[in-house]
Design brief:
281 residues; alpha/beta; Rossmann fold; 7-stranded mixed sheet
């Protein structure tokens, strides 16, 4: 859940260090998006909401842009939009960024995008039903929705530690799979794939391991060593070409773990939808 990022998200724009967890997560997500784009021959992509619970905001679609996709991002914070724009500009990548207050109205005509998607962001939407109706309206081929795994021990532990903030700042009902499936079905979209994703060999603690262990009085388990910053931005800036390979060295657990284990260990789940009319054709 990483509730603190609600207050400190801006710092990642000056210090891109996201740590191993988020770095691994980004590469696994990139691979999933790449496979979807290849399968459906995607050329235009909408990401909204763009703000989730992963370090540097607004960079989830950069890999798609580097592969030639036309990217549009919608965010609800004008300061964040400004910083996201600067980040993309540093990489000399084109992107369109629009503002929407509560995501209840998307400023696009029908079927503007081949693919629309978001990651760990649905609980920032004011009204899930209205938002998904809008998202399906502007999308022609496929929608990918990824949410935190509420059955995961990491999520459960973070919920216990941050229960009051969860209730105050987030709409947990928006990430309930049954609610998402119901709304998408009502909008005429068919669920064609659903699975767990982002399931590395470590739990989803949502904070530096040092802080996590300290909370439970286990600071003695921390091995003192020099901290090495880790950010996917070095890879995107052509400074660390081996970054994906290094992250995928941890993929063995996600690849081999049975679904029952992933139910309690994976950090996220995804749901992939296409229009029902496409099946009827």
């Amino acid at each position: 859940m990483a509730i603190p990022i609600l207050k400190n998200w801006e710092r990642y724009f000056t210090n891109n260090d996201e740590g191993l967890g988020s770095s691994y997560e980004r590469i696994v997500l990139n691979n999933k998006l790449e496979s979807i784009c290849k399968h459906f021959n995607i050329s235009s992509v909408l990401e909204t909401p763009s703000f989730g619970f992963t370090g540097l905001s607004g960079i989830n679609s950069i890999a798609l842009a580097k592969n030639g996709k036309n990217i549009t991002i919608v965010d609800n914070d004008e300061k964040r939009i400004e910083l996201i724009s600067k980040t993309w500009k540093k990489l000399s990548l084109p992107v369109k960024i629009e503002y929407s207050n509560k995501f209840s109205s998307l400023p696009f005509i029908n079927n503007s995008f081949d693919l629309s998607w978001n990651f760990s962001a649905l609980w920032f939407v004011d009204d899930l039903s209205i938002f998904l109706k809008e998202l399906t309206r502007v999308t022609s081929q496929v929608i990918l929705l990824s949410v935190p795994n509420r059955s995961g021990i990491g999520y459960i532990s973070q919920k216990i530690l941050g229960y009051k903030e969860l209730k105050k700042y987030l709409k947990e009902e928006n990430i309930l799979p049954k609610n998402i499936k119901k709304e998408m079905k009502n909008n005429g979209w068919l669920l064609i794939d659903s699975n767990y994703i982002d399931c590395p060999p470590w739990p989803d603690i949502g904070m530096p391991k040092e802080k996590f262990l300290k909370i439970f009085g286990l600071s003695c388990l921390i091995k003192k060593k020099e901290h090495k910053p880790m950010t996917i931005m070095d890879y995107y800036g052509d400074k660390d070409p081996d970054f994906p390979e290094k992250m995928m060295s941890h993929f063995w657990f996600e690849k081999k773990a049975p679904k029952l284990i992933k139910t309690f260990w994976a950090h996220h789940r995804y749901f992939l939808f296409i229009p029902e009319k496409r099946i009827r054709k």
